[in-house]
């Protein structure tokens, strides 16, 4: 008959080290990755309002360029947004009803504000009027 020694029970310190050490290393790596990401990317929405890019150029005549409406993307109270093709690039076209002329003027003024120039904001290209009594 062989007598076997009782199995070794791991100490509490060993259990804590082997279970918490990987969690701490993983947490440290995650914090370091987030810190590096935030410091490489410019802050969200940063716009230098002190820099004046100058006057906005006048609206070109879109009527002279081939604009092809392709599909309706959305309809709402203030008009209809279309996906369109202007020459060789895709553009968004918003068509306002005649009764919402003031909304159109407000939106045009907002998009023509120099501080609104940002890569994530649609750029105002031009406006065109169709129909009679639109003045």
UniProtKB/TrEMBL annotation:
GO terms for molecular function: activin binding; activin receptor activity; ATP binding. The chain crosses the membrane at residues 15-37. Residues 67-135 form the Protein kinase domain. Its EC number is 2.7.11.30. Its main location: membrane. It is a single-pass type I membrane protein. One of its GO terms (cellular component) is activin receptor complex. GO terms for biological process: cellular response to growth factor stimulus. Keywords: ATP-binding, Kinase, Membrane, Nucleotide-binding, Receptor, Serine/threonine-protein kinase, Signal, Transferase, Transmembrane, Transmembrane helix. InterPro entries: Kinase-like_dom_sf (IPR011009), Prot_kinase_dom (IPR000719), TGFB_receptor (IPR000333). Belongs to the protein kinase superfamily. TKL Ser/Thr protein kinase family. TGFB receptor subfamily. This is receptor protein serine/threonine kinase. The gene is ACVR2B.
């Amino acid at each position: 008959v062989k007598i076997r020694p009782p199995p070794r029970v791991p100490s509490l310190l060993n259990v804590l080290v082997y279970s918490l050490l990987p969690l701490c290393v993983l947490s440290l790596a995650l914090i370091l990755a987030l810190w590096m990401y935030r410091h490489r990317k410019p802050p969200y929405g940063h716009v230098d309002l002190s820099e004046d890019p100058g006057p906005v150029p006048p609206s070109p005549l879109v009527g002279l360029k081939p604009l092809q409406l392709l599909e309706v993307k959305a309809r709402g109270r203030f008009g209809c947004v279309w996906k369109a093709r202007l020459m060789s690039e895709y553009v968004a076209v918003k068509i306002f009803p005649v009764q919402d002329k003031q909304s159109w003027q407000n939106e045009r003024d907002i998009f023509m504000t120099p501080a609104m120039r940002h890569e994530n904001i649609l750029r105002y290209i031009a406006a065109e009027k169709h129909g009679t009594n639109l003045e």
